């Protein structure tokens, strides 16, 4: 791992330290977990936007919408 320097105000550091103590993690681990969650949420949001854009370019056919609304695919 590489060391990274970040700036935080005293109130944020105090809140981070209280949370780290409560969760029994060190400050660095807690920050890594928070950044990992943020990046995962951003990636999921980007993926969702790509899916929305794809369906805007190629909307579902009427029968596909009916299947989707019914919550099941037709039997073969």
Structural topology:
Elements: H1 10-23, H2 27-57, H3 62-70
- Report the major sheet: none
- Strand percentage: under 5%
**Helix and strand pattern:** HHH
Mean pLDDT: 90
What structural category do the secondary elements indicate?
A: mainly alpha
Number of strands: 0
Total of domains = 1
Stretches where pLDDT falls below 50 for ≥5 residues? none
How would you explain this protein's 3D organization?
With 76 residues, the chain is mainly alpha-helical. It has one domain (10-70). Helices cover 71% and strands 0% of the residues. It has three helices and no strands. The protein has helices at 10-23, 27-57, 62-70. α1 packs across α2 (27-57). The model has no long low-confidence stretch (mean pLDDT 90).
Key attributes of the depicted protein:
single chain, 76 residues, mainly alpha
A few lines on this structure:
The chain has helices at about 10-25, 25-55, 60-70. The chain is an all-alpha fold and about 80 residues long.
């Amino acid at each position: 791992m590489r060391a990274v320097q970040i700036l935080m105000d005293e109130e944020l550091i105090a809140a981070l330290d209280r949370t780290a103590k409560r969760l029994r993690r060190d400050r660095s681990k807690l920050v890594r977990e928070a950044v990992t969650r943020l990046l995962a949420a951003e990636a999921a949001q980007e993926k969702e936007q790509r899916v929305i854009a794809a369906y805007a370019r190629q909307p579902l056919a009427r029968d596909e919408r009916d299947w989707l609304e019914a919550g099941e695919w037709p039997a073969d």
